[in-house]
Amino acid sequence: GEGEGEGEATDIDGDGVTAADGDCDDNDADVYPRAEDSEADGTDQDCDGLDGPDADGDGYVDAAAGGDDCDDSEPAVFPGASEVWDDGVDQDCDGVADVEGAACAADLTITLPDGSTTTLDFCQSWEFTASLEYDPDDPPKVTAFQIELDATTEAGFNCRVTLEQEGVCGTGYYDERDSSTTTTLISFDCSGVADPWEDSVTMTDGYLRVDTLDTGTDSGSFVGLPLQTRLAGHLHVADESGFDIEGDLDLTLRQLAPDGEEAMACHVSTGDEDGDGFVAPYFDGTDCDDEVATTYPGAVDAWYDGIDADCAGDNDYDADLDGYDSDAHGGDDCDDSDASANPGAGDVWYDGVDEDGCGGSDYDADGDGHDSDDYGGDDCDDADGTVFPYALELSTDTDGLDNDCDGSIDSLDTDAEQLDASASRWGSSLTVSFASMTFPFCDAEYTTASVNTNGQVTFGFESADYSESALEFLTDGPSIAPHWDLITPSSSGGLYTVDFGNAFGVYWDQATSYAITTSVVLFEDGSFRMRQDAPYPAALVGYSCATDAAIPETDLSEQVAHAGAAGIGNGTESAIFEWFGYEWDGSTSSFPGEGVDQMDLTGSVLFFCGTGDVDADGDGYTTVCGDTDDDDATVHP
Questions:
Q1: Average pLDDT over every residue of 167-175
Q2: Which of 24, 89, 328, 485 is deepest in the core (most CB within 10 A)?
């Protein structure tokens, strides 16, 4: 046993106290019983088991020295001590006198009118009081509450949010626009720097969403008794000057309950007015139209109705989401079901591939309706949309182009004849003859026609009418209307005809003050071509045999010719037409008129296969219109 205990009896650090006498660290001369331990610094200098001073001996270190004892002169005051109610002393050191178990979380972001933001902890000092209604069978109900949150306790640095809410009846949304809600920002200094926004502002917009409002499970009256209450939710309020407050709140405390107050009103909302399960945007929800129950995120969205039913925020006229609206709804995407087909995709001409999805011939680069003569067509210049067969070329032209591809240029091309259109201010009917062809149309063959100066060619009867009436068009007599309207080329522009031998063209060139430019070319097989180079918003376009007054309109812009056909149609229709109307209020016209079609044919070239062929097999299609075997009724487009 020699030498045992010699270490504990030795004062290694020379502080006058050995380990045996209570030196808890004999390697540190500053550590020994009754040494000065003035702060919580990680070392227990006085070896009392605490890091820092504990003057009242309650086992908790003085808060002023870095501990958590909020009053180190009173042994009954320390964290977790029992609260003595109504004495003004914070026995449990939760920051609030006469309250137990106080807990606060309120990190709120303040946005100032200049757009700057700061996020602060508004639990530096806070109060939460509630009015209650008691029921012998249910836990207490909160009927109103007041909240005061401070982001600082420093003098001269005041940033406080106060919220008063009446008409409380459970969880939900409380609207700042309702008179029952008042939220105020006292912004004497929330930014920490001098700014012009140091003021008191009452919010006018926004909401408080209460997610939790809990008073426990015990029923009956708690007047004068401790009652724990918790409120948790989200605050987002603003005012018209640009102040904004947003953040989550979670407040819990146990305090003496007040006298009971009967609830008189209820000002809570679900935030979902239409009941579709989605909250309105006003409450930061995702329902883009909270007045329509069929509109919400994920709803079935029908394209082209102008309603964003699924709240996706996309363009309702761009179904393939390629950034281009459908051409059927004012856009220029001719295939709105394929995102790879759009005007921006580009189209390599003459390769036989329709890259932009717009249909049409891949051998008609200038879009004049005629394929290049280098690829089996008859267009002598497929880079110029003003040059194509049967175009109007006048001997007075000086553009140096063979516009009609007949081999003659400008003054050398003398086949255009100008008709005298000066007979009537409102138009007239002029007879023309086909020198070298017969035009089959509506079960008859014609070598003459009447040209109505108002944009119509009639057969077997004359008309100078400009009514553009669909009923008259379907009953007066066989006619073709490239642009039936009040054109009157006598006022300006010209009316021309050209006899090409195998075709006959009628041209209204920059007629009237509206500079209407339109034409029709009749071909000897009964087909015909219309061009709408510069139409007026109101007109009737199409043809009629005048045998059926009940024929409905057709959307001409949607018509596609059958494979191998000379143009649109089946060859057996008594009429194909569309009326583009307007509204007249007695003094002005409105285009388009309500409930009528909008002129969408500008720049279009329409080929009609016509009615000049017979339907031998009775299948409803003629050879000119794409029937490849007119002796077999089972074979047709």
A1: 95
A2: 485
